[in-house]
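In practice, a research group might receive sequence data for several interacting partners and want a quick structural hypothesis before committing to experiments. The following worked case mirrors that situation: the sequences arrive first, and a predicted assembly follows.
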Amino acid sequence: MFKLSKKTEYSIIALQYLIKREAQMATVKEIAEKCKIPQPLLAKLLQLLARKQILRSVQGVNGGYRLDQPAAKISVADVLEAVEGPLRMTACGSSSVRCERLSFCDLRQRLAPVQKELITYLQKISLLDF
Amino acid sequence: MFKLSKKTEYSIIALQYLIKREAQMATVKEIAEKCKIPQPLLAKLLQLLARKQILRSVQGVNGGYRLDQPAAKISVADVLEAVEGPLRMTACGSSSVRCERLSFCDLRQRLAPVQKELITYLQKISLLDF
DNA sequence: ATAAAATAAGACTAAATTAGTCCAATATAT
DNA sequence: ATATATTGGACTAATTTAGTCTTATTTTAT
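A structural hypothesis for the assembly, expressed as tokens:
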């Protein structure tokens, strides 16, 4: 329970690698080899992080990825959201899901504050102090 | 991310039903129908909860399940652990998993305090105030 | 005693999600 | 131009989760 997905683990590991390299670019290939992450999968993850402005990508020769924000400003919550999508504890609540228990189940409402606290907590942990 | 499994949802819903019924027994069949949960699956879940002394089971005619503890003493963490097994955020750390990144990856150690806080938090939420 | 009503346990199948691959397209420095 | 990168999307494989089925055991009422 609450186990991070491989995607999330890989993302954090790759980010930590990039933090150590500071502003220097690193290619997917390099990161994949050093961190022992399957390269095509890592490529996807770094793309997701770039879309959320956590990383900056440069295409072409001498291209690669580097941090687009100071490490202290990147929260664990940011990474989770970029890679896994919005954090929510119940299946219902996403617009497409209709729940046959709606009439009597108050799980979602009860979980809402828990979820909120959890997110707040994860937002306070940056990749640096984490 | 952090979405509760169906098992967990079903367990909490069933427990809330049992809380409303107070000390009265309810059969798996009854709970399954009222809460719209597949009966054989629910049966498994209630067994897990009974093993952890969250529920008390009585076999035979007129048997069923009832709470084995006051609702206020049952924490969300208890339910999660009973149904999902120990809460841990990394795949490594369970004895059977060997990680090829061990030499340089400190994810597990860094996640340890996060995980601890999370568990502490979930332990403080009972089925009543939740 | 016996039948009926209940949980217990484990093997099994199906569905869904996650992990990982592959390939063609686009961008860029030399 | 060409080599080296990322981009994006479709695809397959593996794993996990959800759900079913069957048989055994326990208990009670008759």
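Before designing any experiment, note the following. Residues 6-124 of chain A form a domain with the Arc Repressor Mutant, subunit A fold (CATH 1.10.10.10). The two ends of chain A are 20 Å apart (CA to CA).
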